[in-house]
Specification:
alpha/beta
Length: 164
């Protein structure tokens, strides 16, 4: 049996959207479940937790922001906890147990590229939100950024519009 240090690393991005949940299940089914403990990768699941809005933190002491900031921070933490707990449950349901799950605060583009570097990943997996050209141009695309800046192969898993 291969030791953990000899296996390559796959980083998988997870967020609250159904597209990332689909990407997780698809990846587990295609790269982990059929192989059991002999899977070709160590899996690192990364959730990029947004930072509380800068405006809230800049409101200053005694301002309304000092009351809002802790509430926003607590809500962001609860959402991150729910996302990671669901990811762990999906992995457990498919008998994939050796998974590292991280929550890292920051912009998803930077968080994911940093995780690739930190874990020396050979593959980064992202779900596609399926945005059109206009939305992608306005919102920016995490997958597009990672495809150009991550120092590994990037796999974008698209959820089919129709299941057969």
């Amino acid at each position: 049996m291969e030791s953990c240090s000899e296996k390559r690393v796959m980083v998988l991005a997870i967020d609250e959207h159904e597209h990332s949940n689909y990407a997780l299940e698809w990846t587990l089914d295609h790269f982990f479940t059929p192989f059991g403990s002999n899977a070709p990768f160590n899996l690192v699941i990364v959730n990029a937790k947004p930072s509380p809005p800068v405006a809230v933190s800049m409101a200053g002491p005694g301002a309304i922001g000092s009351e809002i900031f802790p509430a926003v921070e607590m809500q962001l933490k609860q959402i991150a906890d729910q996302i990671t707990e669901k990811a762990k449950q999906v992995c457990a349901s498919k008998l994939v147990r050796d998974v590292l799950v991280e929550v890292v605060e920051g912009d998803a583009r930077n968080v994911l590229c940093d995780a690739v570097e930190r874990h020396h990943a050979s593959v980064l997996v992202l779900g596609s939100h399926g945005y059109g050209v206009i939305k992608r141009a306005v919102l920016g695309s995490v997958s597009d950024h990672c495809a150009h800046h991550a120092h590994c192969s990037v796999m974008i898993v698209k959820k089919p519009k129709f299941k057969h």
